[in-house]
Amino acid sequence: MKIGTIGTGVIVEEFLNAVKEVENVECTAVYSRKEETARVLADKYNVKQIYTDYDALLKDENVNFIYIASPNSMHYKYALKALQNGKNVICEKPFTSTVEEAETLIDLAKEKNLLLFEAITTLHLPNYNKIKEQIESLGELKLVQCNYSQYSSRYDKFLAGEVANAFNPAFSGGALADINIYNLHFVTGLFGKAKEVKYVANIAENGIDTSGIVTLRYDDFVCECVGAKDSNSPSFAIIQGTKGYIKLNGPANQCLSFEFGIGNKVETYNEQKFSNRMVYEVTDFANIYHNNDLKKYHELLEHSLSVVEIAVMARKDAGIVFAADNK
């Protein structure tokens, strides 16, 4: 895998550090609209080629994957053009702003026999997959609670009138898209699509959600997913059944460890050896690519589409409108 990156933020550096840990994967090019920011990133990670022209990057034969870490609203644009030019894609969360965008990308990837991955760490973490194995031991499920709340470094500026992308409907921002989406991935990966989706949110004057609660109803249990960028809380997830519980320690995108309680017996698990959570997803993407594991690939695509559908239902239930809705 030879990867060209889009974006120069912290998440890109975390991704590049993960790439260094995985065999047969390398970053061969860095793209940014500004040469100076591209150069700083390329020098830090010993990447020889930089681009300020996206079309030029897409013509680079030494790149077969495009990693997209642009503002949320631009994921679709960059991914679509990459696929049209025969490049495989790894796209940061949220996958797309609308269901129509997701369906278009998926159809095109399949038509061109290309890979299209959402870089959502949760599904690939060993602790998450261990949780999935343990759920049947809990008996009949009754309640699921997830909370990922983190006071945004940009929130004070937002209150002062400076609107960053993360709080801008034009850029598909907000608490649901930026942070609660991890909870939706966590729950959907374990239990599938919910039958009913509701979202009660704290909405700012510009129409963006700064925090909120998504309620998901399944056949036999209910689930709440809390996400906040305007306040802080310990992050966790709890799955309760008639025979016991599982408590995730920390946010759903890291799955740092979890407790498994049956009766009076409580055990703590942590099967993750890498501190960089992204190593596991890059490893899985590489395995799918090198082994042509289309079954696993299509499962991931179906999952990503399901989460987009749920997120859009939640967003529309709260009356939140993105610029992408009007295309």
Task: Calculate the mean pLDDT score and round it.
Answer: 97
Q: Count of DSSP E strands?
A: 14
> Distance between termini?
34 Å
How would you name the CATH homologous superfamily of the largest domain? Answer: Dihydrodipicolinate Reductase, domain 2
What does this structure look like?
- With 327 residues, the chain is α/β, with parallel strands linked by helices.
- It has helices at residues 10-19, 35-44, 54-58, 75-84, 99-111, 126-134, 155-159, 175-191, 278-291, 294-317; strands spanning 2-6, 26-31, 49-51, 65-68, 88-92, 116-119, 141-149, 196-203, 209-217, 222-228, 236-241, 244-249, 257-262, 265-269.
- The protein folds into two domains: 2-119, 3-Layer(aba) Sandwich (Rossmann fold); 123-279 and 306-326, Dihydrodipicolinate Reductase, domain 2.
- The strands form two sheets. An eight-stranded mixed β-sheet has the order 8-9-10-7-11-12-13-14, with helices on one face. A six-stranded parallel β-sheet has the order 3-2-1-4-5-6, with helices on both faces.
- α5 links the parallel β5 (88-92) and β6.
- α1 (10-19) crosses α9 (278-291) and α5 packs antiparallel against α10 (294-317).
- It is globular.
